[in-house]
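Entry 0007
Protein: Glycosyltransferase family 2 protein
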Amino acid sequence: MTARGPDTRLVATPVVTGREVLLVVPALNEAAGIEACLRSLLAGDPRLAEVDVVVADGGSVDDTRRIVARMQASFPRLSLIDNPQRLQSAGINRAVRHAARPRHRYLVRADAHALYPPGYAMRVADRLAATGAASVVVPMDSRGTGCFQRAAAWIVDTPLGSGGSAHRGGRRSGEVDHGHHAGMALDWFHRIGGYDDGFSHNEDAELDLRLRDQGGRIWLAADLRLDYRMRPDAAALARQYWNYGRGRARTIRKHAVRPRLRQVAPAINLLLLALGALLGVLGALAGSPAMMVAGSLWPMVYLSALAAASAWMALRHASPCGLWAGPALAAMHLPWGAGFLTGLLRRREPKAP
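Output (structure tokens):
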């Protein structure tokens, strides 16, 4: 992911010192990009010289740790800690427990495989101070290089792909219910107990739910954007969305909240497809054309929607790569729905690794 876009509308002058900021970067086998990520985070604002930066390593077996250790000679406020639980949520919690000092007022979270524009961390902290929000989140603009990646990126930021979620390509700053985490006021982080470090996915949405329940405000800074690289193929995308669905179900089970329509739509779609297939099989066994036709109705509607999405993206972007949009949607919708349904049916909460 690549973050971009300064904001001069809300913060005319710096309002936060570097000593007040704790920057945490969870990492696991990120040797290919960790140095470029850290150098991008530590450039572009003189206040960054006073920012404490913590890399929480989940047991990398590549050169990630060696690279960070070497960089400490140039960046004395850079530190490396172990994250035995390996999950990002656990790494951030551990970094706050071990590295946070009374002078720290703001937590900034960054991704080890991302590149950031000059001064990004301080702009996030400035925005927290200027808005008075408990958390600042940023929208993601999906990107891709291969044909499948590009089509998936084009379709995911549409209502068909994300259900209109504000942090997926959103263009308007303001209060939201949830978004991709960028920064948080540390007093709020401590107040709600940080992340639930048993969550491997959906940990940010689960934290946002607790934050809002206690009166915290979440601000979407639409100008501080992230370029997000989609998974390279259908199988990888399906695995990702399976985990997303299970994470969302776990959040719903934990807090006994009612999901939104856009969150249950993939599960409803999957159930209708399964019902249609069952009617088709029963109709064939019973020799009932009427039952077979009834069973084919929803699958035909869904297939038509996928075909329309492919044609729409191909025409909109004047590229045959857009024809992969339909398969990409299926690789998101169906595994998400399956993960969500199986997550709801779990009798026990899974333990963190």
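Curator remark: The radius of gyration is 22 Å. The longest strand covers residues 21-27.
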